[in-house]
Amino acid sequence: MKRLSFYWKYQLTGWIVFTAVLFFFNDRIYHDSKYFSPIAVTVILLGILTTNLIKTIIKSFGIFKNKFSRQLIQLALINITVSIIGTGLWMTIMVNIGLWIIKKRGEGFWLPKLNEEFFFNLFLVLLTLSGWTLIYFLFHYVRRVRKEERLKTAYKLKKAEQESKALRAQMNPHFIFNSMNSIKALIQENRIEESIVYLTTFSKLMRTLINNADKKEITLYDEIETCKLYLQLESMRFDEKFTYEVKVAENIDLKSVQVPALIIQPFIENAIWHGIIPKNNKGHISLKVEKNNNEVEIIVEDDGIGRKLSTQNIAPSNGTHTSKGIALTASRLKLDNLLKHRKGGLSITDKETAAGKSEGTKVVLSFAEE
């Protein structure tokens, strides 16, 4: 009913406006508005009937489902056929009811005049109906394109959701595996008390992971708490090889910001394993949450050996694993932007002194504040 109402509303409006324009120019040129008024009424009525007939033919034969070139040929044939028949019927009706008088050129010579009138009006009718058909064609073409785009977008989003789930599934086991290795190392070194504390902290972490396992995203508060637990676990394992700090700006409500689960942890892991651990001396890692205009920035910064030296030190297998973890995280951010229609950002900077010596790595994740 809505489509029918929409169609007829624009049909009536279009033909009334078209006839009003004809009436205006006819009055300006011929000054016979009284004579043209009944003709204008027939233009509206026959125009609506004719164009509705074209619409019915198009729908009945499913012309818009054919190839583009074939559509053009079929629409042209329909317009020519309907224009010839319509013009003939219209002129016949107008002449018979006395609204149109064909002036004779002489006794028995009225037919050439009729032919002239017919072809002149056929041209006008064909031009008018072609314009209407073009508008009708463009309307359906645009609507079909939009429908196809909506379907493509829906498919793309559904695919992105599945990929995002797969990426999260890969991240969680990797995270748990590293933590279990840390506990194993403590037990093997006979550090029982520390392993108990570690296991207690790990159990808290596991509870957090299980609670968030089926969630596409979590609050930044929960994400930061997870990172705190992870930093605590790794600091214990490596005999406080590094110190760490977590700072959150006072003007940020962590519970109002949504982020993909375990989106920060891989960068902290890289900072520890490939930045701090290879250092000869003690290192430091900072996790900061700051506000920059309308975005919340999460900054993971270390004073490790840097990415260049780290790439030279690590084994090829570990290098592949590390790059894969970062690539997965970058992919998750990209998918999150697509699914949530937002602009999350990621930048990784190598810190260097004025002399070009590495001072560590700085990672900045940015999310729009909701």
DSSP E strands, number: 7
Q: What is the second-level CATH architecture of the largest domain?
A: 2-Layer Sandwich
Structural class, by secondary structure, is alpha+beta
**What percentage of amino acids are in beta strands?**
5-15%
- What's the level 1 CATH class of the largest domain? Alpha Beta
Distance between the termini: 39 Å
Instruction: Show unreliable segments.
Output: 316-321
Strands in their spatial order, largest beta sheet = 2-4-5-7-6
Order of helices and strands: HHHHHEHEEHEEHHEE
Q: Average pLDDT across residues?
A: 80
Helical residue percent band: 55-70%
What order do the helices and strands come in, and which of them pair?
Elements: H1 2-30, H2 33-60, H3 68-96, H4 110-188, H5 192-211, E1 217-219, H6 220-237, E2 242-248, E3 258-260, H7 265-276, E4 283-292, E5 295-302, H8 307-313, H9 316-340, E6 345-352, E7 358-368
Parallel strand pairs: 2-4
Antiparallel strand pairs: 1-3, 4-5, 5-7, 6-7
Helix pairs in contact: 1-2, 2-3, 2-4, 3-4, 4-5, 4-6, 4-9, 5-6
Characterize the structure shown:
The chain is of the alpha+beta class and 370 residues long. The chain has 2 domains: 2-151, no CATH class; 191-368, Histidine kinase-like ATPase, C-terminal domain (Heat Shock Protein 90, 2-Layer Sandwich), CATH 3.30.565.10. It has 9 helices and 7 strands; from the N terminus they run αααααβαββαββααββ. The protein has helices at residues 2-30, 33-60, 68-96, 110-188, 192-211, 220-237, 265-276, 307-313, 316-340, and strands at residues 217-219, 242-248, 258-260, 283-292, 295-302, 345-352, 358-368. The strands form 2 sheets. A 5-stranded mixed β-sheet has the order 2-4-5-7-6, with helices on one face. Strands 1-3 form a two-stranded antiparallel sheet. A hairpin with a 5-residue loop joins β6 (345-352) and β7. α1 (2-30) runs antiparallel to α2 and α2 (33-60) packs across α4 (110-188). The longest helix has 79 residues, at 110-188. The chain is rod-shaped, with a radius of gyration of 38 Å. The model is unreliable at 316-321 (pLDDT under 50).
